[in-house]
Design brief:
Alkaline Phosphatase, subunit A, Alpha-Beta Plaits, 2 domains, 14 helices, about 30% helix, globular
Amino acid sequence: MNFNRVIWIVLDSVGIGAMPDAAAYGDVGSDTLGNIAKRHALDLPNLCRMGLAKIRNFPGLCRANPAAAAYGKCALASPGKDTTTGHWEMAGIILEKPFPLYPHGFPPEIIEALGRPVIGNKAASGTEIIEELGAEHMRTGAPIVYTSADSVFQIAAHEEVVPLDELYQFCQTARNILRGPNEVGRVIARPFLGAPGAFKRTANRHDYAVPPPAGMLLDQLRDKAVPVYSIGKISDIFLGRGITHSMKTKSNEDGMAKTCEAMRLQPDGLIFVNLVDFDSLYGHRNDVEGYAKALEAVDRWLPNLDLRPRDMLILTADHGCDPTTPSTDHSREYTPLLVYGQNVRSDVALGTRESLADIGATVADNFGTTLRAGRSFLNDIQTL
C-alpha cells in the first residue's frame, strides 16, 4: 500500500554544487548551499538529521548516522537553469532546447508590437528597476518592461497608475506576441504600490506561462482523480493544469503557514509547494546573510509539519542561485533530495539521480500512474 499524501516542497534555488556542464553556463564554482556554509555558520539541525550533510560534506554541517530520511541529489537533464525548466522537469518534461534569454533586453520588433510606450527593456533586479524607473512610470504612465536570468518578460506597474485588470491584459498581449523563437517561459505581471523611495511590490503578481506539454505529472494525477493543492507559484508555472486548490504566497513565512493550513484541509493527494524567497529576495540580490537566515527559518519550521503515518515529505530545489558569486543569475547546480516520513525507509542513499523527473516519476508511481521520463525510487524508500 502506497502513501496517501505527498507534501512536496521546492526550496527555490537551493542548489548544492555545480553540475559537470556548469562551465557552459558560466557557473564554474557555483555552490549555493556550500558557499553559504563557508561564510555563515548555518544552524540546520532538522535538515541535517534528515541527511542533508550525507548527500555531501558541507562546512559546519553535521552528518547524521543514521539519517532519518532517504537522501540524494538530482541533476537537471534539460538544458537551462530557470524556474520553468526545473519545475517542468520535476513533472516529467525534459526539454530539448532551453527557453530564450534576453540579457540585453528584447528586440525592437517585440517592443513595438506591444502597441504602447514602455520604459526599461533591460535585464535588472525587479526591486531595483522599480526604484530606478518608478517615478518616471508614475509621471508618464508607461509600464516598466524588464527581464532577468530567467526566461521571463516582466511588466511592472503601479496599481494606482495602471489598474490590475489593465496590467493583466497587457501581459496577455505580450504573451500572445512572445511565440515561436521568442517564446519565453513566463510573462509576469509585477504590480507595486507606494511612493518614490518607498515602493513595494504587492501580492497581485500573476504569471502567464507557456502551456506544458500534455501528459505531465499533474495531467496524470487529474486523470486519476488525485487532488493537488498548490502553494506559491506552482499553479502559475503549470497554468493551473490538474490543480484542484491553489493559494498564492507573499513570502516564505506565508508559504510555510499555508502549507500547514493545506495539510489540515487536504488529507490525501499531493500538496505541491514553492518557497520562493531564497531565489527572489536573496539569491538574485547576492544577500548571503539573508539567504542563510531563510534556510534556518525553514529548518526551524519543519518540526511543525503535522505528518501522518502515511505521508511522504519531499524536499528539493529547481536550480541554484549562489549569492556568493559576482553573478546575480541562476546557477547550473545539482539539487538536494530528502524524502522523509514514518513509513519512509531511513538512511537510504538514493545517489545521484539523472533527472529531476525521477521525483515526478516517484509521485506518479505512488498514485498508480507513470510518466514518460524519470525513474521512480518508490520501491527503494517505502516500508509500507
